[in-house]
Amino acid sequence: MSKPLVIEDEPLTPELARAFENARRNVLWFDAHVEELEVYKRYRGKYVGSAGGELFVADTAEDVERQAYEKYPEDLPHVRYIQREKLSRIYACHR
Amino acid sequence: MHVIGDWLICEDGVIRPTVFALVRAADGRMVEVTFLLDAGADRTVFNARFLHWLRALESPQGEQIQLAGVGGSVGSITVDTSIGFIRDDGRVATVRGQFAVFTEGESAELSVLGRDVTNNFGVIYDYPNRTIALLAQPHFYEIKTAS
Q: Which candidate in A6, A15, A20 is best for mutational testing of the B interface (most B CBs within 10 A)?
């Protein structure tokens, strides 16, 4: 049995504010460029990440994050797994 | 409390409802997580990208969450961590507790925000107006009839 969740209201520290702003920028950059870069056509079965206004691609999440953090150490990359096949998703489990 | 979400482009131009957050990893670092807002999901689950960030926070064996989808059970571990959502007033809503992490990469493109978290909020999920919002006091919503 898992423990109940606790929700707390906390102040936004300058460090957290920078982290949110930085991460948000990468999410929005990915959303704005995903079609132009043909991410869902070219990178099926790969992990992709956005940081510093660039797209990174690798076979594993660790590798795509390593590439992004090496180039932009202060950045918080937005990372997704691009499913191998184009399917309608109902979030059934994968077997 | 008002957390604003986004309709983001996902697979092949499909636009899906998402909520942006940061999760605290085992080394104390904050990591970006974009959740798919899923009203049908019982639990919040991180996709397999987060395994290497969160594995060291794994809960004891007796506290593991068991997950199943349409096709049967799915591999996951349970971790203790916190998720921070930025509010429209510049503060942070922090949710602490136990969450699952998929162990297989193909299980999900994005992490899933389930009802364990969203039941604590009023949720607006409005595609025609491209609005996603999580609300708690003092914010609320009201349904009106156009005259």
A: A20
